[in-house]
Amino acid sequence: MGGLNSTRITSSHVSRCILGMVLIIFAVLVPECSSRPYGRNIHVSVVNEISEQTELTIHCKSKDDDLGEHTLSYNQDFHWNFRQNIWRTTLFWCSMWWTDSNGHLVQGSYDIYEASRDWRRCHTNCTYPVHQDD
């Protein structure tokens, strides 16, 4: 069989090529992911700005974490940290209530941190003042 030089491809050659491609992909993606919000430490703070005489009670949770009930004096905050998931579906919601100056209970619930909305708005440090509408 006339002068053709044949090269024998073995399974170890294939394994090395696949490993090399995986390492190249990993080297390209790691710097790219570090500029993304995924896995970043997010800090959320809720501040009572209703009035000096009004205590705010707040109860925040996510699908995985119940942060408990907290009563905040005027200008006091409740804060926590977490890591955003890779799917950008991290969601924390809070129920809040207080008694207004007329003795009426004011209450509501709010999605306090929604990854798809808040990453653009406040990145890694999100502060939410709570005040009564006039």
Automatic annotation (TrEMBL):
<keyword id="KW-0812">Transmembrane</keyword>
<dbReference type="GO" id="GO:0005576">
    <property type="term" value="C:extracellular region"/>
</dbReference>
<keyword id="KW-0964">Secreted</keyword>
<dbReference type="GO" id="GO:0060320">
    <property type="term" value="P:rejection of self pollen"/>
</dbReference>
<keyword id="KW-0713">Self-incompatibility</keyword>
<dbReference type="Pfam" id="PF05938">
    <property type="entry name" value="Self-incomp_S1"/>
</dbReference>
<keyword id="KW-0732">Signal</keyword>
<comment type="similarity">
    <text>Belongs to the plant self-incompatibility (S1) protein family.</text>
</comment>
<keyword id="KW-1133">Transmembrane helix</keyword>
<protein>
    <recommendedName>
        <fullName>S-protein homolog</fullName>
    </recommendedName>
</protein>
<keyword id="KW-0472">Membrane</keyword>
<feature type="transmembrane region" description="Helical">
    <location>
        <begin position="12"/>
        <end position="30"/>
    </location>
</feature>
<dbReference type="InterPro" id="IPR010264">
    <property type="entry name" value="Self-incomp_S1"/>
</dbReference>
